[in-house]
Write a structure and sequence with these properties.
The complex is a heterodimer.
Chain A (H helix, E strand, L loop, with lengths): L4 H11 L5 H18 L34 H5 L5 E2 L2 E2 L7
Chain B lengths: L5 H9 L5 H19 L2 E4 L1 H16 L10 E5 L26 H8 L3 E6 L33 H8 L5 E5 L6 H7 L2 E4 L20 E5 L2 H11 L29 E5 L9 H16 L3 E5 L7 H16 L18 H12 L2 H13 L5 H22 L5 E5 L15 H6 L5 H6 L3 E8 L5 E8 L4 H14 L10
Parallel strand pairs in B: 2-3, 7-8, 7-9
Antiparallel strand pairs in B: 1-3, 4-6, 5-6, 5-10, 9-11, 10-11
Helix pairs in contact in B: 2-3, 5-6, 7-15, 9-11, 9-12
The chains are: A mainly alpha, B alpha/beta.
């Protein structure tokens, strides 16, 4: 497998990371080296093996549907890049 | 005072031989003098530390002191701590003053421990050399040309340089054990689920686990008593009865079955490291341990499996850094998507971007089965290897890394070479087992070498017992670098 510049641009788009035209060749080379390492998995027969998502095969706990946390909007918004009247501001998405 | 262990400091405080303010001042002065050459800290706040130390002294005067009240410590910059900058080694969080504290930080605070500062680390805990920090590389106190290991390089270097008696750390693929090994200190990664991940900045959630780094196994046991415990705010925290990790420290090792995986002593292991491990095994045999040869046949596959699973989980976890709720935001952008893409391009370093890109690809439409599912099946094979091995032995011993610390810059240009050096640590995280590193000697260049002890699930007390008995008979853990 070898990723083309087009593939790298598509992955970067999926990841929402701007990769400039100047960077794309170097990034592509590194990713191809990493996938060279990863491809070694494909030689292993894993038929019938149950995938392991988690070290302890336990089900997630449920909790009572009650309020346990107090509102800390001011504390949490104090670290936000841009807020106004208690709202997080982002560039306009609807005209 | 400088070389005192956590336990000794606790005793000195209880006996009234020293105050918490005196201790904090001593360590803050050492940090001020030595940190410029080591770069082990991202944040130090003398006034805050001294205020906390004074509060600890007041608590002691009021008769409210616990075992560790007033003892100084350091937190890895991955644990959110209210009012402290929690950068996780990233430009993305360079402006993040945490509005809340991690469970581990709360537990340490409740135990009366005093925070000296925040330890440097590889950005978002991604790295094996601590060269990936936005705040610059950490230097190994034993040799300033060498890496301290990563990602908890600041924590390990600070303990080694005696800038703190103990530090918190995290281990996703070896990030406690490998820097502990490279810096000649003792560190333990508990069984997955023992230490709460609440408030610990997430990298790969099914692998991340917090633990302590200190001079000695006994100190790690005392710290684990503070750090471990059920926390309902972490969905994978295990509901288990509290245990005393010091309870087995003094048991003799006669009859202990020690497994040596043949794959850990195959080609690629440095001769000096191999000799150190052989000598350590010989010491345990002298104490009555029986050696059993075992096999972990899928060890090599831990590298590709880890470098699929960890980046996949990282790519989802790190999607939260969008420049909206906290952290860095690009100065100029033309619309929302442009803001995301520029913010993340500016805020993340090269290795973090690489792992997010790998993760985004392996989870993308049409590739999920070939990579992510395949890696999860291999993860099962690796866990099964350990299951079979632990039918023949009580603990597994081996090296932590193929070589002692390499030089700064030696592998930073080649991610694949860096990944290959994680061969002996990754499988422990994939299986969710506990692992530790104990100082066991030095290589030809005088760089420390650690012995890895791998336990069965919830085998921490047994591992700490083995480590403590080894440390009663050896003095590697008491050696400190000349600085």
């Amino acid at each position: 497998m070898s990723l083309t510049h087009q593939d790298v641009a598509r992955i970067a788009k999926l990841a929402r990371i701007n990769v400039s035209d100047e960077e794309i060749a170097a990034v592509g080379n590194q990713l191809n080296n990493i996938f060279g390492l990863i491809e070694k998995m494909q030689a292993v027969n894993t038929d019938g093996i149950e995938p392991m998502a988690h070290p302890q095969d336990v089900s997630l706990r449920l909790r009572e549907d009650i309020v346990t946390q107090t509102n800390q909007r001011e504390a949490f918004q104090a670290v936000a890049p841009q807020v106004e009247k208690g709202l997080f501001l982002v560039p306009k998405v609807i005209e | 005072m400088t070389n005192a262990t956590l336990k000794q400091l606790s005793q000195q405080l209880a006996a009234g031989e020293v105050s918490s303010v005196e201790l904090a001042t001593h360590y803050l002065d050492r940090i001020e003098a030595l940190n410029p050459q080591l770069n082990a800290f991202i944040t130090v706040d003398r006034a805050r530390t001294l205020a906390d130390a004074a509060a600890a002294d007041a608590a002691r005067a009021a008769g409210q002191a616990g075992l560790l009240t007033g003892v100084p410590m350091v937190h890895k910059d991955i644990f959110c701590q209210q009012g402290w900058k929690t950068s996780c080694g990233s430009k993305m969080l360079d402006n993040f003053i945490s509005p809340y504290s991690a469970h581990v930080v709360e537990q340490c605070h409740a135990a009366g421990l005093v925070t000296l500062g925040r330890a440097n680390m590889d950005e978002f805990a991604m790295g094996s050399s601590n060269e990936n920090s936005y705040y610059g590389a950490v230097k190994n106190p034993w040799d300033l040309n060498a890496i301290p290991g990563g990602s908890s390089g600041g924590s390990a270097a600070a303990v080694a340089a005696r800038l703190t008696p103990v530090a918190t750390a995290t281990d996703t693929g070896g990030s406690i054990r490998q820097p502990a090994s490279h810096c000649g200190v003792t560190g333990i990664k508990p069984t997955y689920g023992v230490v709460s991940r609440y408030g610990m900045v997430a990298y790969a959630s099914s692998l991340d686990q917090g633990g302590p780094i200190a001079q000695a196994a006994e100190d790690c046991a005392l710290m684990l008593n503070v750090m471990a415990g059920f926390d309902e705010r972490d969905s994978t925290s295990l509901e288990r009865a509290r245990e005393d990790y010091t309870r087995e420290l003094n048991q003799p090792l006669s009859g202990l079955r020690v497994g040596l995986p043949r794959e850990y002593f195959a080609a690629g292991l440095d001769a000096d490291v191999a000799k150190v491990i052989e000598d350590a095994v010989a010491e345990l045999k002298k104490q009555g341990a029986q050696v059993v040869e075992i096999s972990l046949p899928n060890t090599e596959l831990s590298i590709p499996a880890y470098y699929v699973i960890a980046p996949a989980e990282a790519s989802t976890n790190l999607s939260r850094y969008d420049g909206v709720r906290y952290g860095h935001r690009a100065a100029e952008y033309k619309d929302l998507v442009d803001m995301y893409e520029k913010t993340r391009a500016e805020g993340f370093g090269a290795e973090v971007k690489r792992r997010i890109l790998v993760g985004s690809y392996v989870l993308s439409h049409g590739y999920y089965d070939a990579y992510y599912l395949k890696a999860q099946k291999i993860r099962r094979l690796i866990a099964n290897d350990f299951k079979a091995a632990f039918e023949q032995c009580d603990v597994i011993l081996g090296p932590v890394a193929p070589t002692a610390a390499f030089n700064i810059g030696e592998k930073s240009g080649d991610p694949v070479q860096m990944y290959l050096s994680d061969i002996y640590t990754l499988s422990v995280n994939l299986a969710g087992l506990p692992g530790m590193s104990v100082p066991a000697g030095f290589d030809r260049r005088g760089r420390p070498v650690g012995l890895q002890i791998i336990g069965n699930y919830f085998g921490e007390a047994k591992m700490l017992n083995v480590a403590h008995q080894f440390q009663l008979a050896t003095d590697w853990h008491t050696r400190a670098p000349a600085l």
